[in-house]
Known about the structure:
This protein is α/β, with parallel strands linked by helices. It is built from 12 helices and 9 strands. A 9-stranded parallel β-sheet has the order 7-6-5-4-3-2-1-9-8.
Amino acid sequence: MRKLFTILGPFVLVVFISSSCSRKIYYTENKEQLNKKVWAWMSGKIAMTPEQWEHYFSCASSAGIDAIILECHGGYPEIQGDTTDFTDKGAITIIKTAIPYAKKFNIELHAWIWTTNRTELNLRESHPELYQVNALGQSCLDIKLYNREHYRWLCPTRPGTTEYLKARVAELAEIDGLAGIHLDFIRYPDAILPYGLHKSRGVFQDKVYPLWDHCYCEACRSAFSKKTGIDPIKLEDPTSNTEWMQFRYDAIAKVASELCHVIKSHGKIASAAVFASPVESKKLVRQDWANFKNIDVLFPMIYHKFYDKPDEWIETSTKEGVNALRTHKSSAYLCSGLFVGHVTKERIDEMFDYASKGGSKGICLFSLEGVDKTEGYWDALGEAIIRYKK
């Protein structure tokens, strides 16, 4: 397994430049305080020009955004490494390119990586045993879940998965000037898609079906059988077996906790993007994020229209998350993630207010590209942030 601990090359993430931003500078006191901190997700790629980097960081700064979570490893690696060196040179290059812009515009920079969802061909070819298997016995390497090429998922039970991801996290955490590392897709594949996506993805999911239920690989079956005497593949209704459900919650939480420990050991902030509410997260993707340890910030992605929920659900879901963290005595703080496509520029204040009333410490927007594509959104956002931070 030695070749598991070196790695790969970059990937393609599209960045759109569609409008110019205002150059007003919105200064706020106590910018470093966690309360009322404004974050934004942003895609990054090696091919971005200096003008593109300047555009996004200057616009973010002008609007009053405090921190950018920059995607540096995503679903489609731009350059594939070989099976002797897994170092994610692409992710490292993207972060090192972005750091001078973050410093110039006084923006905190976090490296955003995909976690158990990994698609790099060198890993797939050299370690197919690390990938998850559904209840039909099919590896996610052999089928395209939801017709998505990038839906290739590592098994959290296998030690090789954790060691591989620790190495990827460590090589980024060593970069000077980087504030933190942000874990995305730290979960199982969707056993059930968010309800508003069923029609567009062409699926019918009134319950959990074997095709989408993971992981039933030999390692998971053996570990669970050793613990309980039950082979999970033989369960008639896996979702009704609380021990099997808890086994999977714990497996993901353990990986997340160990990765966050590595991040923090390098003096960086550990954060993660998670599903909208604790209940929905466990039901849909086996993600019990209130039990993640060693983590500083959790960003529930409260993209309410994907769940067919009203706007007020931003507040409801935020409250559920805050209460779950309190119940589990977690030291992490919660920052509600809002989808720009669900937040019109005329109603930014209202959506921010829902998150605040729910107990969110700040706001995180997905994404800067979405802001950029909507005429007038930069100015509206900047004005809303001024009001939010008062």
